[in-house]
């Protein structure tokens, strides 16, 4: 109610004052959520705020611009989208392009958005994804990843960036898989994208942590998704962990998955047996690392999976014995 007595320039001043103290803070998010609700009841004020901020672009006012623009969008999609496209096209400011790209992605989540407006917004995001400037390209990738569960428009562009070795693109896909795993699984495309995340390595801890948690929830004995998850984890180990990497690297990096496997001994046995039999030192190290921290009240028994052993050759079994002896001697 206090906002009703505050002029728009004073709202801007208030946001400028609080922004440095609430960056990436839940308190800041709550503040802008309240602002967005207020603007939602005053679409004319939301439009005026957008115009005021566009007249004096400032990177630190992106959240305020987003709150006002989305409130305007809720009352008038045509006018708000048209203004967004115009501002994005006319401006040469990278910081404004970051914000307009983010807002365009948010607009694309609206189910009632017309096909014509959606196509125009998608075109601006695609333009950013292929931009040579890394800041603008990242903005486009984030916007595309945010609607990966809703739209297939950006599939080819994302895959092209990943094929070109763009770790930012891989990170955005990993975040999309963790944030919207249920929708992507329901749409049947989760495991289309998961193998592309094999290349995700150092520097993307948050994306890997989110992916680890999502995958761990699929590692239940009754889950139909156990095998593709195990295939991904083994592929990631082979791609990211060399033979000289410490044995605990996998269990530390995918700690939720490792704990899920430890909680289900038959699954742990399957993975342990497969990875010890595999022709990779990295998989053997990862398997050993998973059981190294297990705690029991009595003697710990590490069982092999009989079904896996039944399919092994005599040479495979000899190889397994030698490998196990090697780890025991260490």
| SSE arrangement, N to C | HHHHHHHHHHHHHHHHHHHH
Number of strands: 0
The computed structural class is mainly alpha
Give average pLDDT, whole number: 88
Largest sheet: none
Share of residues in strands: under 5%
Helicity, as a percent range: 55-70%
**Would you identify the regions where 5 or more consecutive residues have pLDDT less than 50?**
none
Distance between the termini: 68 Å
What count of helical segments does DSSP give? Answer: 20
Rg, Å, rounded:
25 Å
Broad shape:
elongated
Explain this structure.
- With 330 residues, this protein is mainly α.
- Helix content is 69%, strand content 0%.
- The radius of gyration is 25 Å and the shape is elongated.
- The protein starts with 7 loop residues before the first helix and ends with a helix.
Highlighted features:
330 residues; mainly alpha; 20 helices; 69% helix
Set out the fold topology.
Layout: H1 8-18, H2 26-41, H3 43-55, H4 62-75, H5 77-90, H6 94-107, H7 115-129, H8 134-146, H9 155-163, H10 167-179, H11 181-187, H12 190-193, H13 205-216, H14 226-240, H15 249-253, H16 255-262, H17 265-277, H18 281-292, H19 306-310, H20 314-329
Helix pairs in contact: 2-4, 3-4, 4-5, 4-6, 5-6, 5-7, 6-7, 6-8, 7-8, 8-10, 9-10, 10-13, 13-16, 17-18
